[in-house]
Amino acid sequence: MDVRFLGGAREVGRSAILVNDCLLLDYGILTGNPPRFPVDSVGPEAVVVSHGHLDHVGAVPSLLSGDRRPPIHWTPPTRELSGAKRGSRRQRRRDGTYDCPFTETELRRVTQVSETHCYREPFEAAGHEVTFYNAGHIPGSAHVLVDDGDTRLLYTSDFHTEDQRLVSGTTARPEADVVLCESTYSDVEHDPRATVEERFAESLRTTIWEGGTVVVPAFAIGRTQEILLVCAAHDLDCYVDGMGKEVTQLLRRHPEFVRDADALQRAKSNARFVDGRDGHRRRIADQNTVIVTTSGMLSGGPAMTYIPAVRQRPTNKVAMTGYQVEGTPGRELLDTGSAEIDGRRMPVSAQVEAYDFSAHADRDGLLDFLSSYEASQILVNHGDRCEAFAEELRAEGYDATAPAVGDELTV
Fold it and tell me: Of 136, 238, 376, 387, which is least surrounded by CB within 10 A?
């Protein structure tokens, strides 16, 4: 089996892996200013998408230009979430984020070539047998097992081994000769989720009691719903704004892909949905309340209204809940106390805090997962320290390497 890395190797973002020159696993975007896309021009016979986050699916419609019509395989929630997340190019321009590398026509073609599959139901793609397994990352996220008749490759994509409120952790360990494993948190040990939740909830309560407003930037898919569930469980009223509103509604149509559909419905009922007018948003920002909004890295969305509205008062708070890619405004805010928001450099006097609500396995989770594959070849990707983690795995007796973008291996 030949494996070529078009993105996502030794970096977090633009995941794209080409198998045997014909089967493409993911085709994403690396968020930043400007964003970056997978290398090389490819014309796969089929595409398999692991889940609906932009760093794995954001550039997929560009594969449908001209006469190209490769089928796109994904789980039912990933198909819907990908369409919701990409949205329209016009909306992204209004929200102040980047333009995307595909046309409205190519976006419409996605629905014409889409094929959905549930977990543990093998299907054929570009002459390979492919099977999805629950990855425990977000609803519909999948490990992807690819069998070309000679080699079984397990592409873990993003995964979590511990339960979240929204989804249960992965328990799948299918047999594989080669494991292409993410490593986002290979040097981190997550605090117990209950401890993080309690600290988060207490901080929000304190800010509201002191007369402040809390803005909670959150990814639309997965993190927004997780935070709504946390707020409901801790009796915290909140508003929700941005693409997370649509995603929350969408997930109610796929109850079998969430951990507790009834709890998600209660969390939705506990939240107040913002109607999207900037005037309404500014009025909300003056209230003693919690606002859960996109974008999670402050690179666009309603956060462009809320952050300027709350930034000058030290009693207010910005509570970051997700990974902040280097070069994004969210990362700048954490590192420097200021950020470029909607084209303007803004110092932020409001308190800025970060909470580890990660939907990725930490170091212990990665090692626990890989303990089932001690006899397999391990390829480390999707991380800031892939080479270091591969070296640590080799010290433990694994056959582990960390390919770079552009590398092609025979496994």
Answer: 387
The count of residues in the chain is: 411
d(CA 208, CA 334): 22
**Which strand (E) or helix (H) includes residue 38?**
none
The reported pLDDT for the residue numbered 326 is 81
Instruction: Please give the Cα distance from 204 to 341 (Å, whole number).
Output: 23
- Say what the pTM is: 0.91
Give dist(CA 238, CA 270) in Å, integer.
7
The DSSP string of 253-299 is: T-GGGSS-HHHHHHHHHHEEE--S-HHHHHHHHTSSSEEEES-TTSS
Angle between helices 223-233 and 261-270 (to 10 degrees): 80
Q: Which residue has the tokens 């494993």?
A: 181
Does a cis peptide bond (omega within 30 degrees of 0) precede residue 295? yes
- Using left for φ > 0, alpha for ψ between -120 and 50, and beta otherwise, residue 379 falls in beta
Domains of the chain, start order? 2-187+359-410 (3.60.15.10), 193-354 (3.40.50.10890)
What are 291's strand-pairing partners?
215, 239
How far is CA 406 from each of CA 75, 131, 172, 290, rounded to the nearest angstrom? 28, 26, 30, 44
Q: Report the candidate in 309, 307, 328, 327 with the shortest Cα–Cα distance to residue 319.
A: 307
For residue 347, the SS3 value is strand
* Per-residue exposure over 91-122, b if at least 16 CB sit within 10 Å of its own CB, e if not: ebeebbbbebebeeebbebbeebbebbebeee
211-228 pLDDT, tens digit each: 999 999 999 999 999 999
